[in-house]
Amino acid sequence: MFRKSALIASFIVHVLGFVGEAAWETVVIKFRQIALLSRTPRFPELDEPRNIVIIGASFAGYYAAQVIASKLPPNSPYRVVIIEPHSHFHFTWVLPRFCVVDQEQKAFIPYGPLLKGAPEGRVRWVRERVAKVNRNGVWLEKSREQIPYDFLVVATGSGAAAGLPSRVPVDTKEEGTALLQDMQHNIKQAQHLVVVGGGAAGVELATDVKHMYPGKFVTLVHSRKAVMHRFGPELQAAALQGLKDLGIETVLHERTASSNIVDGQITLQSGRRIRCDFLVNCTGQRATSGIMTELAPEAISPTGAIRVKPSLQIQDDKLSNVYACGDVADVGIDNPNARSALRQGMVVGFNIVRAATGGSPTKTYKPFWGECVIKLTLGLDKSIVHIGNGKTELWWRSKEKDISLDAAGAWNHLGVKPFQDDDGLEKQVE
Ligand SMILES: Cc1cc2nc3c(=O)[nH]c(=O)nc-3n(C[C@H](O)[C@H](O)[C@H](O)COP(=O)(O)OP(=O)(O)OC[C@H]3O[C@@H](n4cnc5c(N)ncnc54)[C@H](O)[C@@H]3O)c2cc1C
């Protein structure tokens, strides 16, 4: 009991500390801006603005862009160049749910409002993918344009080779909604469904399917001894019970030999066969660091994540103007998550504003276990909220009333009225 109370107290102290820290940083930057403006022009007149290039505009990159665009002094020679191939922000949390229920439009949030209010010309938005990066600049995949940078932020996140339900592997909203509708259709048609991977995406998808279609046979295959193995034993047990309660067969410590369905069956490495007419692969997320192999091969860890210093500058003293944040950065957390990606994006943003206004990038990111708080759904109307610090776990059951898992909250957070999409918001920042 004492341990759990201590966990709650420590969580509250950290959250308050974070809010205070962000407010303090805003004050410091405001003072710096006023000081710069009150002096005679500190920045040289340039024909071309200097570029702060941000690759990837999800939780980490989009928030880094917001901090930089809003906090650079108005007379700064720098502009923010955001390079992101997606037409809309992909809200990952709801993807397993929207593979099953037809709310897919809500997973795609229009870009733009977070950057409103930035001075004219401060932001250039490029709808493209970066093919490679070196010291001279970044190269775009289709146009082949080379964009030089003074500062670079790598916020390319992580990817799943299988695509859905962990990532939407296409760029436009139209293509994305079509993929989700295909998945809903295939699940509806299947009678014997196999879900591979017992992390959050696999558990949530399997339980949603079985709740929505109780007559289907759903099997979850997971290679570890427990589902949700990256979390504590109490959550593992509660998740397993949730699967059982719905009538899902969970096969642990087993891998599929291949994803091919042969004669209506899939084969496990043990030789066991399971009836299957549709398989959903929920495994294999990996940091998306491929574009950095030329610039900083030494900084890429065996997991694919980019090693960073506490300031989130990459681990290469020759590249102090290059930062990485979010899922792609190796910051020493077991469960990369959106909250920590967002906070890292803000740390990078503050450090670049400091460096671009004559200061030092002294702000640091310290991983906080409370950022890994998870709400794990176990069917359409039940969930478990869980926090843990590796030693103590605290969790409780909750009722889910909103079939779209409060997607509206995410829209609001990104400054967009739910669920209005006029497809024009992005143009306002071009
Ligand atoms: C199914 C699921 C549920 C989740 N639920 C939660 C949850 O409940 N709570 C939570 O906190 N976290 C959750 N997460 C984790 C969270 O989604 C990630 O931690 C978060 O998205 C990481 O953000 P990011 O900005 O680092 O990268 P990502 O979200 O991975 O985005 C990377 C961006 O970079 C862009 N990009 C990649 N390569 C290039 C390139 N070469 N050129 C240009 N752009 C590029 C991509 O298009 C993308 O927009 C969930 C994840 C999944 C998969």
TrEMBL record:
<dbReference type="GO" id="GO:0004174">
    <property type="term" value="F:electron-transferring-flavoprotein dehydrogenase activity"/>
</dbReference>
<dbReference type="InterPro" id="IPR036188">
    <property type="entry name" value="FAD/NAD-bd_sf"/>
</dbReference>
<dbReference type="GO" id="GO:0005737">
    <property type="term" value="C:cytoplasm"/>
</dbReference>
<dbReference type="GO" id="GO:0050660">
    <property type="term" value="F:flavin adenine dinucleotide binding"/>
</dbReference>
<dbReference type="Pfam" id="PF07992">
    <property type="entry name" value="Pyr_redox_2"/>
</dbReference>
<keyword id="KW-0732">Signal</keyword>
<protein>
    <recommendedName>
        <fullName>FAD/NAD(P)-binding domain-containing protein</fullName>
    </recommendedName>
</protein>
<feature type="domain" description="FAD/NAD(P)-binding">
    <location>
        <begin position="51"/>
        <end position="334"/>
    </location>
</feature>
<feature type="signal peptide">
    <location>
        <begin position="1"/>
        <end position="17"/>
    </location>
</feature>
<dbReference type="InterPro" id="IPR023753">
    <property type="entry name" value="FAD/NAD-binding_dom"/>
</dbReference>
